[in-house]
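In practice, a research group might receive sequence data for several interacting partners and want a quick structural hypothesis before committing to experiments. The following worked case mirrors that situation: the sequences arrive first, and a predicted assembly follows.
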Amino acid sequence: MTDTSTNMRTKLPITCFILEIILIILFGTLVQYDYETDARAWHNKTHFDFENDFYYRYPSFQDVHVMIFIGFGFLMTFLQRYGFSSVGFNFLIAAFSLQWATLMQGFFHGMHGGKIHVGVESMINADFCTGSVLISFGAVLGKTSPIQLLVMAMFEVTLFAINEFILLSLLGARDAGGSMTIHTFGAYFGLMVTRILYRPNLDKSKHRNCSVYHSDLFAMIGTLYLWMFWPSFNSAITAHGDDQHRTALNTYYSLAACTMSTYAMSALTAHDGKLDMVHIQNAALAGGVAAGTAGEMMLTPYGSMIVGFLAGIISVLGFKYLTPFLEEKLKIQDTCGIHNLHGMPGVLGAIVGAVTASLATVEVYGGGLRDVFPDVASNKIDASYQGSMQAVSLAVTLGVALLGGLIVGLILKLPVFGTPPDAACFEDSVYWEVPGEDLNHDGQLTVVRIDETEKLNSPMAQ
Amino acid sequence: MTDTSTNMRTKLPITCFILEIILIILFGTLVQYDYETDARAWHNKTHFDFENDFYYRYPSFQDVHVMIFIGFGFLMTFLQRYGFSSVGFNFLIAAFSLQWATLMQGFFHGMHGGKIHVGVESMINADFCTGSVLISFGAVLGKTSPIQLLVMAMFEVTLFAINEFILLSLLGARDAGGSMTIHTFGAYFGLMVTRILYRPNLDKSKHRNCSVYHSDLFAMIGTLYLWMFWPSFNSAITAHGDDQHRTALNTYYSLAACTMSTYAMSALTAHDGKLDMVHIQNAALAGGVAAGTAGEMMLTPYGSMIVGFLAGIISVLGFKYLTPFLEEKLKIQDTCGIHNLHGMPGVLGAIVGAVTASLATVEVYGGGLRDVFPDVASNKIDASYQGSMQAVSLAVTLGVALLGGLIVGLILKLPVFGTPPDAACFEDSVYWEVPGEDLNHDGQLTVVRIDETEKLNSPMAQ
Amino acid sequence: MTDTSTNMRTKLPITCFILEIILIILFGTLVQYDYETDARAWHNKTHFDFENDFYYRYPSFQDVHVMIFIGFGFLMTFLQRYGFSSVGFNFLIAAFSLQWATLMQGFFHGMHGGKIHVGVESMINADFCTGSVLISFGAVLGKTSPIQLLVMAMFEVTLFAINEFILLSLLGARDAGGSMTIHTFGAYFGLMVTRILYRPNLDKSKHRNCSVYHSDLFAMIGTLYLWMFWPSFNSAITAHGDDQHRTALNTYYSLAACTMSTYAMSALTAHDGKLDMVHIQNAALAGGVAAGTAGEMMLTPYGSMIVGFLAGIISVLGFKYLTPFLEEKLKIQDTCGIHNLHGMPGVLGAIVGAVTASLATVEVYGGGLRDVFPDVASNKIDASYQGSMQAVSLAVTLGVALLGGLIVGLILKLPVFGTPPDAACFEDSVYWEVPGEDLNHDGQLTVVRIDETEKLNSPMAQ
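A structural hypothesis for the assembly, expressed as tokens:
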């Protein structure tokens, strides 16, 4: 019956109920089935069944969905005592964010006669926006309460939708796989939030901020699902036909090359010539991030491989040299190393996208130029202008992310949100009923209740 | 060389061989490729390749398949010493059930000139029927032998097919995602079976009827796959086009809202304001169950969210208050709490379906009314009659499930099936070769053989 | 700062960098987008978007992709101290192999005007070839360095492409699911390699060559993904329409029947009438292997079930009686028992394919004969000749695999590749930074660093 600030008995139910009721009211007021999900609208016209966008995009949507819930969720289970929170809070904030994102993205770029239309494309976009929130979650993992995370998600989704609107609608940028809108935005937003939430005494929980043997295997489940389905992620909302096909192919090669350079760099930089699971779990994915913008373009297979190859190298070097520097000098405590997986590879992807866009020609794209660069195809702008807008988009994204992260970080410092004390970070038992494991003398597993939470909470609760 | 009733050396091989040989003979006599899988038939007509139903339904089938084998299998691995049996018996009875279901469902509503036609739709339907058996398995988990489970599956599949025939063919009910046919049926059938198999001395195994840290993470794999792919489950056999699309969308929103209310209720009701993994693993899925009947209808996104929201609340309350009551007062030992995940949300889904059906109008559905309510569209019946038939279907399902469970439970009490003694419930080593885990002084893992089975079996075997 | 041959600090980076740079150069010179991924080419003609092969094959590709990275990767995590290497080396050699396979397969049967064309079909074929390498990896699991594996992959992919060219292009054999090209080839190649790498003193590591409780559950993740997605594997590159549909259906039934006979045989042969996880994890998959060649043919559902049923029996018997014999008498140390899962069932599948092909008639296949047996349909050959060519193909495959394995095995014996000493086999810490697990007296998990590698490496390094 402890009554500390981390007790969620009243706070979490109130937060969840209020948020969900607001969501339901707004959905009731604003959201409608789109043309392809509405029984009346769809049957009003004649067409083949397979023209329904469902058949073009639903398999990709499901792959993205797996990346969001299993991929991100299990990737973060590497912490020895934070598996419940990693996968559980990931689940909670994703379930909230996808609903809120439907509204925010609809509001900024999906209104039709005062109504937000929903279908498989809005589902994919909502999952994408959710991905951005989960990236930021990686930076603050282990140091935040579920309420802080929900509040962060609420603001971040809103800012995501604004930034996405500026990039795609105002600047006319292309970013199908979200190197900028998802990865760069999520990473720098999260890094700024964790900077504001800096904990000088986090070393009190240091012994828990690492993995154990089985937790690293759970994390590999997350890694592999992200890796395997990244081609679906980058191609999920590109144009039908060659575009989806080509994007998946480019991403596939980028990831394969990235894996090779990741293993090479890991052995080169890690202790004693051995491979480091942290690198494998994270850096091998950088090739997907870096192919996020240019993946739909005529990047060529070997171009994709070069991008992935570089992304892997940058990412491992970041884990080895930059993360300790950021922590010690800049006071940025980045639990999952999102700067290495999403930050730098996202910026790389944005640059590759800008360069590739500026080189686009009718000779190479033919009639497909309309799909990839509609403004260039219609002669509204030329390719080099498209490239410049891509570069401007990167700058805008960094600005919105950092400024947004600053403000949201300050909001999250309000004590009412129930942040864990320094000594109880990276510890599930603050927020979860946790069974323990014990091997008694008979070699038979029995359960012990870990009652250390009292210990952890009472003396150190601010 | 113990020779107790739980020894499977001869019983299991005989059972499996006889069942499979019967299956092969019946398949050889009765089963044919359908029009879309038969080389001659398909090539006899001209059509586009993509008109083959394979392309409409196979991705959904695979998602359903993952739910059946990974979803159900791993959801039940939460027990600390029953992981092999959870995922292994799940595997066995699912592999049997999907074959037997093909025959039973074909017999009751898929005969064409004396032959059962098979293709992707029959595969989905067989997996659905299997899901129902696995729900019942959740109630008796840890307390039954594999032979009992196979016998239960044989009868339950048969009764499932009969009930499904009554509902869909005789009463004209709609139940694409199976709130009634799958969830309500599987739950109440399983609850009655476990009631009949009541063990007054089950507390002898109480120390094993709980989770350990890693087993809860394995269970979350099951939970998340069920959650992510439930939109595919509910939409797998709805009509092509807007129907599949809309059903997936409705289920997606229902689940998201359900997750929010589950977390809220878990913190509200669990010990000390902490979240309880049992709720997260199970109640967050109730939104999928509750959208099983109305998911294909014009439920609207916010309507789906309300349904999911309520389902989550009911389900957590069930775990907190109803499950202990059922166990103590009604002698229903429901290992996985299927009443909370499938029973009550299934009934809720049936009611929502009946109400939504009775409100259907041509104004809302347009030409799509033909897909969702063909009898209403053809003016054979009106919407309120359709709604009544939905309600009658729920009653029929409850009746068939409870009566069927009673009879099958009595059959399963026959001692020949090798049920485990009370003190050896929730224990893998009764039926499996189990390696142990030990950490010796060097911090190196070594293997110890757990030889407690002798202990467990010899003195208590009836 | 040990400087033994197993130190990967310089060797692995050099190997990976050189291989990847060669790949990039060759891709830059030789590889082009195919018609369906190239923006200009695709838009040069008019067609429906859904005619793009992406929509026919990408969902199957993703299923195959999951089998390669999660399926094979986790299937091999059953070893108690080799989980990082199982899933991590699987990841590395798969990422390399799929790039190399694209070149080799393109070179032998995909050149168009001096260029290799890539798209979803080449992606699937590359994953298939990778699967063959991973099968061989199973035989040498725990006894090889990552560099040995990369070298093996390089040669094996090349030989695979040659053998595939002989079978499919020269002999006109049909083998859509690769009973011969993938499974038989990978198995006998791997068995010969492990024969050449025979270690007489491997019992020094015997205590690590087994599973622990949780590692068996991780392995079941691999098993189930392989099992569930095998219908996609076998149907991934069959012809559009009824062929893909029928192949998936046949494989589904074959696997279900195989699971039944596996459980039966496991209980019959294992210690004390209990089930053995090794059988369940492996033999239950033999039905997919055995349906690899005949799956696309008019094998009939019950024919598929008979094939799966036999495959399960053979496979369990192999684990029980043949594997110990191979190890003791023939000095073939087959860590995963690939002979039982891929070798014998692959040969069975080849024979079933030959028989089924020789029985093909226009009466049964109708116009579909063109898809399955184009040479028979065009009267170039008759069905019995097709059957003979299938049988010849099996013999060729065995020859190429065994001879290739012999040569590659000898190459792998070069000491420069950094093979682990006998006492350090099946041990992650040779190549990985490994955290340990310890339960201290408070029931709280803490981390211990396992520094046994020095111990392992220094005295025994050759």
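Before designing any experiment, note the following. Residues 438-462 of chain A have pLDDT under 50 and may be disordered. Chain A touches chain C through 81 residues (CB under 8 Å).
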